[in-house]
Amino acid sequence: MTSLDKNQIKNKNHYEDLYSDFSIKSILWKLNNLESYLDDAIATDTSWNALYQKDLRNRLKGKKVLEMGCGDCTNAAIMSALGAEVYANDIADASGLIINKLNEQYNFRFPIKFIKGDFLKNDLKAKQFDFVIGKAFLHHLTIPIEKKFLQETAKLLKKDGEARFFEPAVNNKFLDFIRWYIPVPGRPSKFRKNSFKEWKLKDPHPDRSFSSNHWELVGREFFKQVEIITIGSLERFSRIIKKKENKWKFRRWAFKSEKKLPKTINRSFSRSQLIIYKNPI
Ligand SMILES: C[S@@+](CC[C@H](N)C(=O)[O-])C[C@H]1O[C@@H](n2cnc3c(N)ncnc32)[C@H](O)[C@@H]1O
């Protein structure tokens, strides 16, 4: 029997709180405007642009999908509205309450099934999923727990199934060093020692590697095919553009243009990555 470690308990408490009393109004709007919402999100938002690479949008219909760390359940709902049979887990039970509300208020072809509690205790049958998805999920796990989740992913995927994880990318030591000194909404600069310390105590991210090398190496333990698509080497500059309209215009251009840059530049300067694992061992 597994029991939750300190980091898992911290994540659970943080997200139970964040998603309590969550209104599904904005998710319902997205579902009711599915095609135009996805067109826009994929063109301008890093997580959607990354996760939906290689036409995922048109490959989900009729497929059995498991989402780990479903959070506010927006992506689980979108995949379900695109015709997938979705199973979703989150360590926060609050996500299950969001799914209940979604199933009540939207007519999905297959209602979303919530798997409550510690996913590592699941009793799901092996080799049954076409896709296993995680959106900003793996980097919330410590490395030993991540290994167990990836082992489980390899077990649950069909032979020709595919796992996709959208995660941050930290491949450049210098950029990583300076990023802690630049404040972002919700995170003070490291120059402000006390506020930074206070923030760190509450932060649900464990100290661990977010590098592409790490996810390549750990992936090869469980999968024959590992692919990393790095994203954001140009898009990262959108943060200095103040006017919203110009920001979105720049991001549309950046996502297209950075594809033309050499792989080594993209890898070093990217902010995010899509990790694709296939062919479970
Ligand atoms: C950054 S949020 C991402 C949520 C959602 N996927 C999204 O894209 O908005 C990370 C999620 O992972 C969940 N999580 C963290 N550790 C977990 C664990 N051990 N098992 C399941 N879920 C976990 C958190 O509760 C949280 O909902």
UniProtKB/TrEMBL annotation:
One of its GO terms (biological process) is methylation. Residues 65-161 form the Methyltransferase domain. It comes from the Bacteria. Keywords: Methyltransferase, Transferase. GO terms for molecular function: methyltransferase activity. Gene3D superfamilies: Vaccinia Virus protein VP39 (3.40.50.150). Pfam families: Methyltransf_25. This is Class I SAM-dependent methyltransferase. The lineage of its organism: Bacteria, Pseudomonadati, Bacteroidota, Flavobacteriia, Flavobacteriales.
